[in-house]
Amino acid sequence: MQRWAEFVLRHRKWVIGFWGVVLVAGMMLAGRTSDRMTLDFSLPGQPGTTTAQEIKSAFGSGGDTSPYLVTVTLPAGQTITGHEKEVAEVFTAVGAAIPNVRVIDEANTGDRAFRTKDDRTAYAMVFYQFNPSPTATLLTDPIHAAAEKAKPSGATVGVTGEDTLASGGDDSGGPGVLGEVLLGALGALAVLLFVFASFLAFLPLVVAAVSILATFVMLLPLTYLTDVSFIVQFLVALIGLGVAIDYSLLLVTRWREERDHGRDNHDAVVVAMQRAGHSVVFSGVTVAIGLIALIVLPVPFMRSMGYGGALIPLASVLTTLTLTPAILGGIGPRIDWPKIRHENRASKAWSRWTTAVVRHRWLAAGTALAALAALVGVFFGIRIGLASSESLAKSGPAYEALTTLERGGVPTGALTPAEVLVSTKQAKPVAEKLARVDGVSQAFVPSGPAGNRDGQSIVVVIPDKETVNSQSVGVIERIKDATKDDPAVVGVTGIGAAQIDFMDAVYGNFPLMLTIIALLTYVLLVRAFRSLLLPLKAVLLNLVSLGATLGVMVLFWQDGYGSDAVFGIAATGAITFWIPLMIFAFLFGLSMDYEVFILARIREEYDAGNSTDEAVIEGVGRTGRLVTSAALILFLAFAALASGPGTDLKVLATGLGVGILLDATIVRMLLVPSMVSLFGRWNWYLPAWAARPLRVEPSYPHAEDPRIKDKALVG
């Protein structure tokens, strides 16, 4: 790091010029990168996806989509009976106006289940062709317009469905990526102004802007090699903002400290790079490990988030270790004005706090572990799946249309029907068999091209309840069991089948992913801390912290204790299937940042000759405000992310935000100092046999005067 710092300082104008070019290129290419991203959650090779592809190939629509439900409600005093022809013409008009759709209704099934009990409302299912472009608009308006034009006099029409309910009928998409970044940046600037109390507060923001745009530049070639999920752009923008600011904040704070200790500007930059820069490298690699581990999952969109996400810490580390020292080496002292806050000694408040924690370490550790254990216990009640229809919308035309159907006795399973691809000759016997499966409301084979083409037919199965989570997909399991030995059945697909496939493909591989992350992180941290025990504690505490974070999400979102008050969204009933994995992958590395920041400074103080307790007090005293500020900046970035479109993005953002705060408070400021104090001399062992393959010096505890502990705790 010393040699690298000297190189950057000698060529700082070239370094700044290089990043200036990257900045301009990023502004030019960021839009193209976003346009090339996709909205595709398919699971290649899984039974449901394979069947869905065959349905799309043969029928042109459906398979992996939940249908739109189009309703026609006749005026008071009129019934569907006697007006079947006029109602059927409405649904026929929708099929004629919208390309590549299949319309399933009473006319082509002969099933009166497509009416409400009061005989005033009829509905049809409209299966459509999925468009993977994130800029694609919903078909709600075109479908409604076609139905409106053909409706009987005095009738009202409505359009509902999972997608329409989730959007609330609003395709505006929230403030957009740029708007969210600006929101996060304003919050970060407020924190940085408090931390630095000088114009130096703007430096981390400049570095973050360059880092974000550099990530978009690096991401563009990846979009030509593989599909990249549209979610990555939000992660790059908001998580990239927080991570780059955090790393730059760490380096600038250490530079300031060295300046306040009397070093000239050149030496202050070099020492800051040696100490804080070293921590930045290890933090960046740790974050990248958690994300790269996603590539072991056989799911393209998860892999793309792993590839794309790993570019975030890479760009943040590169900009922090080149652009930040280049600017500090040139105009750093001039922009550190007015010089109100000084860094020449540890924070008195944090030193007093840590002294109290060390003095009462058993109580501190026990209290923190009890709180985390309670939240981890809640986590075991998690349901994996999709948000229920009750949480998607509470008002609007789509909500009203669904309410009309529910009051009329139509099961919510109509929102998520299963499609069973079968041989046409055996379609009716299969439908009769599936209608008798426990949890199935109706099963029918549409006549004509809507359900029969080239010797294949689709049996549409409506469950009693929507199949959106790990507890409600039992009926789909029973449907698959009932058809698995039938040679006439090609396969079962639909939203419920996709849930089952994802659980098998992803969570079945989760132990492998967890093992890879834990082992690589442990080895990396053994090298960073020169200890066998400290990294083990760090990995285990991270896992406990993640379990507690998911416990908070179960309470907040799944059970609804807070989601309605904060976001106006009712209890989701489940956590979206891909979100726990993303939270694990991101938080494992992001929260480990703070572990690295704190323990690296504690290790430095111990190597300087302090006792374990003195090193803990001084280390946390030096890093407490830094870690708290960094966590708050990331939290504000996630708060901005929560303003994005859709419930899923809000769930992800709140999970990341809560996880960061939980980790930076209970874990890093209570558990870490208390447990390091409890372990005492055992923290500092790295025998020669373990140090040799890692190419670091072995470590053994130095002699500690037993009186030092008492001195540290009282003074």
Automatic annotation (TrEMBL):
InterPro entries: MMPL_dom, Mycobact_MmpL, SSD. Its main location: membrane. Keywords: Cell membrane, Membrane, Transmembrane, Transmembrane helix. It comes from the Bacteria. The chain crosses the membrane at residues 12-31, 181-200, 205-224, 230-253, 280-301, 307-331, 362-382, 506-526, 538-557, 569-590, 626-645, 651-671. Residues 196-330 form the SSD domain. It is a multi-pass membrane protein. SUPFAM superfamilies: Multidrug efflux transporter AcrB transmembrane domain. Gene3D superfamilies: Multidrug efflux transporter AcrB transmembrane domain (1.20.1640.10). It is found in: Cell membrane. PANTHER family: MEMBRANE PROTEIN MJ1562-RELATED (PTHR33406), MEMBRANE PROTEIN YDFJ (PTHR33406:SF13). This is MMPL family transporter.
